[in-house]
Amino acid sequence: MHNTPQSNKWPLWFDPRHRKMGSWAFILNRITAIGLTVYLCMHLIVLSKLAMGPEAYDSFIALAKKPAVIIGEMFVIAGAIIHGLNGIRITITSFGFGVRYQKPIFIGLMVIAGAAIFLFGYKIFSEL
Amino acid sequence: MSEPKWLVDFQILRQHPGDKPHFKIYPLEVDPEENVLDAIERIWAKKDRTLTFRHACHHSTCGVCGMRVNGVEKLTCITAIKSVTKNGGIVRVEPLRNFTVLSDLVVDMGPFFRHMGETRFNSVAPVGYASLPFEPDPTNSIPLERLVDCIECGLCISACPAATTNAEYSGPAALAAIQLMLTQNFSPDLMALADHDNGAWRCHSAFECSEVCPSNVDPAWRIMNLRRRVVAHRFKSLFKFPKQEKQHA
Fold this sequence. Notes:
The complex is a heterodimer. Chain A is mainly alpha-helical. Chain A has one domain: Fumarate reductase/succinate dehydrogenase, transmembrane subunit (3 helical TM bundles of succinate and fumarate reductases). In chain A, 71% of the residues lie in helices and 0% in strands. In chain A, helix 1 (21-47) packs across helix 3 and helix 3 packs antiparallel against helix 4. The relative contact order of chain B is 0.12. By secondary structure, chain B is α+β, with helices and mostly antiparallel strands. In chain B, helix 6 packs antiparallel against helix 7 (188-194). Chain B has a five-stranded mixed beta sheet. The termini of chain B are far apart. Chain B has nine helices and nine strands. Classes of the chains: A mainly alpha, B alpha+beta. Chain A binds chain B through residues 1-10, 12-13, 17-23, 25-26, 90, 93-96, 99-100, 102, and chain B through 15, 17, 21, 70-72, 95-102, 107, 134, 159, 161, 163-167, 169, 204-208, 211, 220-221, 224-225, 227-228, 231.
């Protein structure tokens, strides 16, 4: 019947309805992980342009300076900060420390993430 | 003076083997203080005798009436209607997730009980072990035993995202049981059950099990404590060398 556990039900991992803060952190970690993995693949493809000569690489650098790409980079920075800080929380709790305080830890780390993302954004966009 | 009655639409997910699941709506006049299970029983008694659901003790001891009420796992026998809806509102009732549905709101608890059985879970334990370490000890160190908290309702499995995609996962209740048993006595086979990719390491730290647990088991805390024990056991085993057998002439 329809709600039996099955490996093809992974989209339900991303359904935040009726769930609490631990699940939001779980969803956020997966979204940022997918984003960072996609970015890593793109990064390796771009690096491979080095083997195609200076013209190919220079044309990419010109593209990378466009605002749309910089906004994309901003998402990468945000994803890395959120994923990294949330990972610290998961590591701490996975060793049995602070489990009862996982919600305040998450809130605190996300406040730090928000401040760091704002600072990075200010720095990047003020130099445009 | 008693509170005026509310008119509430109960949307119940109906499904029988071979049929497509669908919601059937039952408008019902209820006392807002009533529990959801009371309303479901009245729907069965007065509106639809084909509706199937489980119920027994009506006071959160047997653990059989677990369902999803407006998307959240609840023991319906202790869930007041006024806590989940308003006058003129909707109460959506669905079976637990991550279990095979047998009929309407009845799910197959067999795999869950098999996992619990593997843990050799004893429902009576010394107070010091049955209680969580941060709970006050009411006995003042008098050696007493008590019933452990888990009522084996399965709400934790339903809420767990890891259990959604993996039917082999032991699940929060069984892992909490292993933690409780290991706290009392070390057992290599229980440690092996915990230190397994479908054991403590399958948990993805969503902490939903503790959010929905109606019985203060705090499975998430116990799973994390279990991980610490597993890591400590692995670390200690690094320094254990196999005993050399004496050579006989």
